[in-house]
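We include the entry.

. . .
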Amino acid sequence: MKKILLAGAGVLALGFGTSHSSEVQLRILETTDIHVHIVDYDYYKDAPSVAVGLARTATLIKEARQEVPNSLLIDNGDLIQGNPLGDYMAKERGLQQGEVHPVFKAMNLLKYDAGNLGNHEFNYGLDFLSETLNDAAFPYVSSNVFIDDGDKDPSNDKPAFDPYIILDREVVDTAGKKHSIKVGVIGFLPPQITQWDEANLKGKLVTHDIVDTAKRYVPEMKEKGADIIIAVPHSGLSDVTPQGRDENATYYLSKVEGLNAILFGHAHAVFPSETYKDIAGVNIEKGTINGVAATMPGFWGSHLGLVDLTLDVDDNGNWKVVDSTGSTRGIYKRDGRKKHPLVKADQTIIDAVKHEHGETIEFMRKAVGTTSAPINSFFALVQDDPSIQIVTNAQKWYVEKLIKGTEYDGIPVLSAGAPFKAGGRGGADYYTNIPKGEIALKNVADLYIYPNTLRAVLLNGAQVREWLEMSAGAFNQVDTKNIDEQILLNPDFPSYNFDVIDGVEYNVDLTQPARYNKEGQIVNPDSHRIINMTYQGKPLDVRAQFVVATNNYRAHGGGNFPALDGSTVIIQAPDENRTVLANYIFDQKKIDPSADKNWSFAPINGDVKVTFETTPSAKDILGSKDIISYIGEGNDGFGKYQISFK
């Protein structure tokens, strides 16, 4: 096996000399988490956007290619699902045999070299995935997905997809001389897909651990002649001690011997960036993880990822990596609340998908009902909220109909929902904001942006409380003796894991530490943030049974919530949650989305200043008696607000 050197130019001079070798500059470009954002358009707002779209990323791709003599372009998945165009193609219009999916109409024009599958590729089922991938003019890889042979012996599992490919490429060195090089590309995705998409994958596919799979295949790739190896994990970056089958395994993957570049994704974040500066072994100036050049280019086409390798070949044709860097380039920049485009959209990409794009807009404008009050998610993380309430109302309505006449008839039905659009990494404009009046399909999709299918679980009162304890990890602990500013929201806790459960009443005591960490482990066993919990005005009976409406992601383990591992599921509904929501609005015709205020923060004694950030637009809906007050500008276009606990 050839030894890989990740060093500076000084090592090049000492190790190789200049009489028999020439440098090759190889640039590897990455897109990831496009989620069908091909056109620079926000289907929920029904307006153009400068912050999304492969059409804009395409301009960066072409510029980056022109700067170097040698380049590769690779996509890292979560491509065919994620916005109304994806749903329209999969659920409404359909994809006939021989038709090309719009994502590949665009990507084939850009001449990608390879693609990796993400977890959301499986949301529409294996048949649709197969029909879609047939349209790609480039190969796909995924190494840790295997055919379920039913024998419980992982050692003989056969890959469901090509685990890796070895690309034969011709490169030109700095002296103009041509060389042949073999580039290995290996892909990975979260093992949890078999839980998250159980309805589509049970009995068909199984998954293995990302790092273990890499250790199996990377040596094999070397034996088959790969000169350099690019790992493409659809997996985030975390240095938390591995538990096996980890969702975010990129950090420990970087320690597998033989990798020369890592193109990662899934986390909807940017690497290198300040976010990761405190992780041991990460160099954000160099763009490396444990010495391996890496990049993660955001989401929805917001960035292009670049890994630049300096290679040298000796007289025997052995390639060495002598320098490497990872970086990203954005399609826009933010100035306060404003987003300024850095590039124009590539018109050839726009033209390639104009028919499907136009059909999607027309479809999303169809009305399903009216609302008697505005619906927004501005304060969804700090108080009971109408954008969650309308979803939980619809789920409860649906499940109560399903259980009539069954063994579960008569058991109280609760309903869990979370704010999907609540700022965070999506930015200061990433909120639901539906005015009073007509509700169209675009508004329904805005309220429920994921194609989850409805599930119901059977739990006791104690388990419902633990569910909410996990959810309460969204908040930082408040120190009653601290008179300085304290930040309320935990930035590492995604808003889609902040579940509100309607049908019970409760308070959240912020003076207590979180009972669970984000991996679902109890870290403060004596702590309980969920207090004063009642059902119909009486203290919650921890032994009483409840049917809780939720979605397939949560019910089958998504978010690592206690008692939610698939074993408590009693209803696997055929309908998507947002279809349930649309049908509920259509049935009711006119809805009142007002929040029922079933949860709130417990009072805090002490002179504390607790703040949080949300959109500046939220200040326009504050009343004189609100416990929330606007106190000024926040970071990156957000507004800063203070909340009272008196």
Notes: The chain has two domains: 22-360, 367-474+495-593. Confidence is low (pLDDT under 50) at residues 1-20. The first strand starts at residue 23 and ends at 31. The domain at 22-360 is CATH 3.60.21.10 (Purple Acid Phosphatase; chain A, domain 2).
